[in-house]
Amino acid sequence: MPHDLDDPSLYINRELSWLSFNRRVLEEAQDAGVPLLERVKFLAIVSSNLDEFFMVRVGGLQQKVQAGITRSSGADRMTPTAQLEAIAVAVKEAVAEQYRCLTDDVLPKLRESGIVIRAEKDLTAEEHRHVQDVFRSQIFPVLTPLAIDPGHPFPHLANKSLNLAVLLRRPGDPEPLYAVVQVPGVLPRFVPLPGTADAEPKPSMFAFCPLEDVIRLHLADLFPGMMIGDAVCFRVTRDSEFEIEDEVDDLLRAIEDHIKQRRRGHAVRLEIEATAPAEVVQFLVGAVDVDPGDVTRIPGLLDLTGLFQLHALPGFNDLRDPPYVAAPVREFAQASSPWAAIRGKDILIHHPYESFKHVTDFVEAAADDDRVLAIKQTLYRTSSDSPIIRALGRAADRGKQVTAVIELKARLDEERNILWAKELEKAGVHVVFGFVGLKTHCKVCLVVRRDEDNTLRRYVHLSTGNYNPQTARVYTDLGFFTCRADFADDVSALFNYLTGYAELPQWRKLIVAPSRLMDFMIEKIDREAANQAAGKPARIAAKVNGLIEPAVVQALYRASRAGVPVEIVCRGVCALRPGVAGVSETVRVVSVVDRFLEHSRIFFFGNAGDPEVYIGSADLMDRNLTRRVEVVFPIEQPDLKARVIDEILKTTLSDNCKARELLSDGTYNRIVPAADESSIRSQQRFLELAAESERRQQQAQAPVERPKLATGLNGAAPTKHAKPHAKSRKGRG
């Protein structure tokens, strides 16, 4: 009897799948083959990821439990209470592994390499004098000790802030008193010890003391005349999930109000030092108002996001990934302007291997070109010092028609986006906030230019990733440039839809969510199943960050039942169980976790031997398909299509160094090369391909020495050409 595709056992729980992804990140920190400071970085990323997970996912589940909701919204049908219980077990195991990695492996190796973190008890007399000077001159003025008594209630502590709970007594009075000292987030987490700050280029030793330990050493300065007892480090994570009502009159004001509420969100996790006395833990549980089950005892430094400071230390290049410089794209490098390059052919850029500067150059050229009449752009997340924001403001100042669709609801970036919106409005940019009930997540830019031949032409950039020069250096994404009229018509219609009152058009090239994308994906998957049943060539391949939507998972199950080979690269959460007999035997799912964050989305369909390739901003998740404005679009130019299929997809699916394969029980198995196989590390291969491309460009542009005529022994005039002298950039990974 065929398996019921609604059976919850066929679906992996979203939250547990995400925690599994974070364990794969932890594996990179545990991998002795990863450069040591990169391992430090991965330990910090694990903690940063967990912070956001608790703020958003756990916070949302706790809201459901408090509201008495017992039904699950997921296809796995796991209740909110059951999910919270399973999360607690998984997080406890992962945190224990993380700290074993830090304490038993990474910190000893750092010490061997000249980087030491000293606990307060290990400081020398000279170091004690040094930190005392630093404390009194730089730290003490920033601190505010907070007494806890009937006249001073327990303070509201900032989300993710590090704090000290201090147990005090007055001389001669046995009654315990409590106080709280917040560890200032405006100061570096690690205080350099003597002889470490000015050593160049590489010191024999960089030694640090954690800021909280420096404060703990000098509590008597904060509480003069008091007897100091235990001083316990702790940290509170708060619920940051919120929903915007559909009926709001002013979206900007509503977001600003919710940001203020978020700062006072209820506590979802209390992290505390493992050595904390029971009475202090009990006091904090009541004061912070968390369930005892939401307490995590930490066997070491709290808040390992502070390790980013160590990763950024000067020198120590031998402890980092080899540096690389993103390669220029030949079409742009050889053209007189971005417009000339795009008029020549469609252009595909593979970031971060190829330069994101071509994207910023595109927007900046549009801002400064007198022939450009209008610029329209979506902005979901961008960098803190964005050249794109400056270019849009400059364009408006020059009198161009500039429209920016800014997504105020970009999670945890709302405040930054509000600032950009206000700054752009001051510059004269027409700022639009999209829809109340939908996030505008698509990545689109449209430039309208009157070209030299007096033709009004529209230039389009579409992408899988954000207009963010900072993340473009560490996220893998695909960008696409074209000036084809069919794409330009669709993009113009999309902006009209986003900014005005417009019915959805009959799209010529774009596939847009939420109106069409879900049906489109299911139709394409079902077509492959029909082709397989008819004996025609059929295949499905995809590269996404998440695969959760049950309707899409079921379509893939149907395709597998029909015998369609299905290969999926899914970096993060995945609800689909591959390899289930009678359901998903032809499905293979892998996750690649490496130096760069895999972020591009690619969809391939065999189409009876005439392959189709699409890229875009959307993952195969309910939020992307039903609650966001997303854009997926075809890659049709033969050379670009072949590149996506044969280079990007094939290489990624062939990775046997940094890929993990998902098993039917929901666990992941790291892939290793067989004895007769070559090692393929996909990201390293893409760096090599970019370097080879740049080298060819340099060789093609290298000057050639004029032939020197000479009379040979046989009377001939031989010629001798100089060899190309250009070399590839040093240090490319």
Low-confidence stretches: 197-203, 244-249, 706-733
Main sheet makeup: 10 strands, mixed
Termini gap = 53 Å
List the total number of helices: 20
CA-atom Rg in angstroms: 29 Å
Structural class: alpha/beta
Topology overview:
Elements: H1 14-30, H2 36-66, H3 80-113, E1 115-117, H4 125-139, E2 146-148, E3 162-169, E4 177-183, E5 190-192, E6 206-210, H5 211-217, H6 219-222, E7 227-238, H7 251-263, E8 267-273, H8 278-288, E9 295-298, H9 308-311, H10 330-333, H11 338-344, E10 347-351, H12 357-368, E11 372-379, H13 387-397, E12 401-406, H14 414-427, E13 430-432, E14 439-440, E15 443-450, E16 456-463, E17 475-482, H15 485-499, E18 511-513, H16 517-533, E19 540-544, H17 550-561, E20 566-570, E21 587-592, E22 597-598, E23 601-605, E24 612-616, H18 622-626, E25 628-634, H19 638-653, E26 659-662, E27 668-670, H20 682-701
Parallel strand pairs: 1-6, 8-9, 11-12, 12-13, 14-25, 17-22, 19-20, 20-21
Antiparallel strand pairs: 2-4, 3-4, 3-7, 5-6, 7-8, 10-17, 11-15, 15-16, 16-17, 18-25, 19-23, 21-26, 23-24, 24-25, 26-27
Helix pairs in contact: 1-2, 1-3, 2-3, 12-13, 13-14, 16-17, 19-20
